[in-house]
Every structure is written in C-alpha cells, then in structure tokens.
Amino acid sequence: SYDLTQPLSVSVALGQTARITCGESNIGSRNVHWYQQKPGQAPVLVISRDNNRPSGIPDRFSGSNSGSTATLTISSAQAGDEADYYCQVWDSNTVVFGGGTKLTVL
Amino acid sequence: QITLKESGPTLVKPTQTLTLTCTFSGFSLNTRGVGVGWIRQPPGKALEWLALIYWDDYKHYSPSLMNRITITKDTSKNQVVLTVPNMDPVDTAAYYCARTPRSYGAFDFWGQGILVTVSS
Question: What tens digit of pLDDT does each residue of A20-62 get?
Fold first, then answer.
C-alpha cells in the first residue's frame, strides 16, 4: 500500500516560517494536495496540485513537491494557523491521506 | 455557492447497517468530471478515505473496505448515499462527504461532518 509519512508535530514561533513535510518514494511524480483542519471543523483545502492555492487561501501558504518529499510552507505563521494538516494523493485509483501533522504556533 | 451536508443516525448498535446521505447544492452530479466522496475520521485520529462516485457512476472504494461498503447516487435529488453494514465500535467516527472534480484530484468542498457512534 502507499503510505504518506508526515511528522506528528511541528512547532513554529509566531511570525516565523513553518514547513510540514509529506514523504513517500517518488511522491514528486504525483499531485499532492494539502488540507487544514481546526478542532471540531471539517478539513479545508489549502493547497492543490503541489502548489496551487484555492480562492480565499492567503498567499502565506505555499507548496512544493520534488523527489521523495512534498512540503507545505506557511510563512509568517499566525495563531490562527494552529491546526492539523494532512497531505493527500491518488495511488492506483485510490485516495491516500497522510497521518496528519499538528502545527503549534508558539 | 457550493454546500454539502451529511445526514443520518448519530448512534447505531453493533451489527446494524449505517446509511448516510450527503445532500449537496451548487453543483450537479450530471456534470462531466464531477465526483463526491466519503471520508471518515475516528476521534483523535487521521482522515481515512472510504469511497468516491463520479457523474458517470464510476466508483472507487478503499481497498480495506471495498468488500463491505457501498456508494450510490441519486442525481435527481442531488444526493450521494454511503452504506456500511455490520457496524462495529471501531467504525465510530466523524463521516464527511466532499466534492472532487476528477481532473483536480483534491476534495475542494466539504460537508460539516456527522459524528456516528457505534455502541450498544
């Protein structure tokens, strides 16, 4: 099966840059999507197809994908960015989510 | 404005069948390329994709659950239905439906979710 590896947690100081990774061999050949989920809420798509921001998502959110690692970057992290983040890809006609990363803004 | 909303029982007994309905607006499952999927999330755990159905009735299922769950659509009612027989306490989760354009690959609009508890 295709497993996406995410760190359990990432911490970032207020106003600094957070980077959340999603790893799997050859993930660079796939389209990676990222979701933000705050407590008690449904996930929200923040990055699609590696580095595209849906309407309404601040440009502080960006993505990259190469080789065996995709990365979600959040610049100038704010308290409101504190949430769980999930990566997602398609593999063999199935949808695969990563295990999620809890972002803490200090 | 695109919206989706899940409905169904919030409490089921072990061995019972769960039937959840996703009612959506702002798009049509008659439109080429459009799909609706189901994703669940046990309390405190990660998202787990379950199934997806497209405008042309093509279906995808999670390999771990494909012998158990069923996804269907009623285009005239703008609804997608998920059926899960033989529910077990490990199936306790928030169940979400979400839209996905086939060419997009991502779930761009989500319902609010419904928490289903399996307990006797």
Answer: 999 998 999 999 999 999 999 999 999 999 999 999 999 999 9
Q: Residue B15 phi/psi, 5° resolution?
A: 80, -10
Q: Which two tokens mark A59?
A: 């440009």
The β-bridge relationship of strands B109-110 and B93-101 is: antiparallel
Residue type, B48: E
Task: Identify the pLDDT of residue B102.
Answer: 83
CB–CB of A43 and B110 under 8 A?
yes
Q: How large is the average pLDDT for residues A4-29?
A: 96
CB of A53 less than 8 A from some CB of B: no
CA distance B107 to chain A (A): 7
| Contact residues, chain B, for A54 at CB < 8 Å | 108
User: DSSP letters of A15-30?
Assistant: TS-EEEEEE-TTGGGS
Give residue A101's pLDDT: 98
Handedness of CA B15, B11, B5, A22 (dihedral sign): negative
Strand partners for B21: B7, B81
Supply angle C-alpha B64, B66, B83, rounded to 5.
Answer: 115
Are residues B60 and B49 in contact, defined by beta-carbon separation less than 8 angstroms? Answer: no
Minimal CA separation from A52 to chain B, in Å: 11
DSSP-derived letter for residue B17 is P
Residues 6+ apart with CB under 8 A from A67: A26, A27, A28
